[in-house]
Amino acid sequence: MKKQPHPPAYSPIFYYLCKQVTAVMEKRLLFLVSLVVLCVLPGHAVLKEANLDTTLHILRAELINYHLELEQQSKDMEEQQQTVVEELTTITNLADQNAVMLYSQRNGYIFDLAYACHEATEQFHRFKSKSQPFRDRINQNTTELARFDSLIANLNSMEPLFLSEKARIDRSVCLALAINIRRQLKENQVLLDTYIGYYNRSEEKLKTLNDFANMKYEEIQTNIFKNGSDNYFKILSHLKTNLSKTGESVAEKYKPLRSERVSQWDVRVIFFLFTLIAVYALLSVIINLITIRIIATRLMKRNKFAKMQDSFMAKRTCIIMAMTVVTFAIILGVIHTVVSQNFIIMASNLLVEYAWLLGVILISLLLRVSDKQIRSAFRIYAPLIVVTFIVIFFRIVLIPNALVNLVFPPVLLVCLLWQANVIKRHNHNVPKSDMLYTFVSLGVFITSCISSWAGFTLLSVQLIIWWMMQLTCILTITCLSGWLRVYSKRKGLDVQDITKRWLFNLVYHVALPVLGVASVFISIYWAADIFNMGDTTWRIFNTKFIDNKDVITLSITSIAVVISLFFVFSYLNHTIKAFVKYHFEKSDPNTAMSRNMMARNVIQIFVWGVWLLVSLKIFNVNMTVLAVVSGGLSTGIGFAMKDILENIYYGASLMAGRVKVGDYIECDGTRGKVNSISYTSTTIETIYGSIISFQNSQLLTKNYKNMTKNHGYELDVLEVGVAYGSDIKMVKQILQEAIVKLPFIYKERGVKIVLKDFGDSSIILKVLIWVPVLTQYTNDGEVMECIYETLNAHGVEIPFPQRDIRIIRTDNDRIPELMAQNDKNTQANI
């Protein structure tokens, strides 16, 4: 381990004790300071009473109570003063300890430096969050002093001549109490100023340390992303020299310190603790081997579990590994809670994170992959699991940069070849999603390998850790998504109404996508946290890369929030529309379709309008600039969108109730049923089966007819002829009685039969009936059939057209004779 100075005033034991109790002490400090500054809480106010005498009497009582409270609080402050000073002293000593650790770091030990920077910045942020409430209360105390100065001046200005005897006594008492209270507030202010002096000195020291740590963080970022080391080919060309330097660096770092006090980071302590962790890992393996391989296997061989035996045996190895990882993580969590040794705390944190990553991969495979695919699926992830463990090991032992640069590039090359080999051998026996993730892993290996061989070894470490974290998040979401789909199919949620599936939709369509967006940030944060740069990463996320307050401000976090809100508002849009549709169908099924069409358009505009306004607010878009730009474009847009806006206006007018989906309309000689109404056009299905779309403006300008708006019946006129000599009254009566019995006839309007004309062959009667618009053509046929059968049954003749022909002989009848005579004359001439 690298040598660090241990001044007598700041021993390692003192540092670790301080570190463990700091969190508790800071909480106590905030509590004590809160008690100290209770004296600055405003006194009770006096409201307007019946007269001045009553007001002064009430004020006297309030000031007496306030004075007693201040006296008690002053006593408490005196008792707590020493405790507060001790708490601040402890924090200051820990700051000095962090300063010694940070300023003693040398180049070439990036993991050590990152750890020291993290400790310094973390303490500064904790201190800032605790000190702000204290400063606010000091400002309140100053306000109280000013309030009592005004009250004293007002009481002094009262003329005793105009006061009653009792009022003068109350005034004198109130004045004395106010002066005494102000004196106590002033004394408390002096004490609080002393505390704030301690705070300012501590904050100044911590700020200096924090600024230095941030400067070192910038150097770490530069080393990772910009200034790489020598490329690996150059290292190989001077292999002997580099091996020698690496050996010296390792020997210097891990050489045991000769000191009266043993550092908790001494190589002997680390080796012992690593051995202890390995023992716990071995214990986890033994426990699960005994539990699953022996006991569970014997249980599965019984008849009760015969159906599960084949699946269990195929996945047994993976089950043992998954349970071993879970057991090991639990043991590490217990150790982290009980043990106060810093190396154990850091190592257990990293190993618990790695155990979670590995556990998620194994459990996801157990739940998603079939028995025959489980072994192949695990093997395609094995290279990534191994290389991630190597990186975690490097981080735990704080390995020197020289050793990382020498060892990690060939390790990545081996893992790259390994990954390519398992893809070639097992790509036919794994799910398509896992195959996709594996190809991405191969791409990450290729990129990392090229980066490390080009000299950017730390960047390759970041890439590997980032993809491992991201892959874990993806597999978690994939597993949850698959389980939810199975649950939905088993419960039949796809065919159920919205009242029973809104919660499922919330989880599936909102929680999972938002979790996917958050996983990008989480994976990058974890990757950066390998170098203790998590806080720096969050600061980068929140940094406004476009910071024009007069126009717009953008940051990575704000973009992610807007994307997440998109999923939320999309869910609200679909859910509200589904609930409205459900309500309409329950209340009035006949008009549900048309009412729902209007409602869904309004809901869409409202929901997405709110999302747009919220997004503009998050991006801090200047509404004035937006209004100016919109005003400048409005004229041109107005001309360009004249027809569109006109159709939108007429569409809103139609959807307001003039036409609804399912209505039967006629426009421009075309008759059909309305299928849909949008803001620009209306689609109808004609009686011939074709689909025609009309612009909304066309329907209104061409005076469309809504055939079903009123009662759904249409007046139909049919004609029938009867022979001359028929009894017209009798014919009208029998036809009317027969037709009115038909079920589709509109009974309220009845049937009317009138004489229309005297035709050439018959007397023409006109039959006036009201039939349903939707079935007019078939109903007409049924009415004509009824007329024919009725007339036949009563012996009424339906005459067919008749013509009388008279033949008149003319010269045209001699044409054959004349033609024969002409032929004879022609032959004689020849």
Automatic annotation (TrEMBL):
Location of the protein in the cell: Cell membrane
Transmembrane segments: 269-296, 317-338, 344-366, 378-397, 403-423, 435-458, 464-486, 506-528, 551-572, 602-619
UniProt signal peptide: none
Keywords: Cell membrane, Coiled coil, Membrane, Transmembrane, Transmembrane helix
Every Mechanosensitive ion channel MscS C-terminal domain range: 717-798
Keyword Cell membrane in annotation: yes
GO cellular component: plasma membrane
Record bears the keyword Kinase: no
Positions in coiled-coil regions: 60-87
InterPro entries (UniProt xref): LSM_dom_sf, MS_channel_C, MscS_archaea/bacteria_type, MscS_beta-dom_sf, MscS_channel_2nd, MscS_channel_C_sf, MscS_channel_TM-2
Principal subcellular localisation of the protein: membrane
Family per record: Belongs to the MscS (TC 1.A.23) family.
Protein name in the entry: Transporter, small conductance mechanosensitive ion channel MscS family protein
Species per Swiss-Prot/TrEMBL record: Segatella buccae ATCC 33574
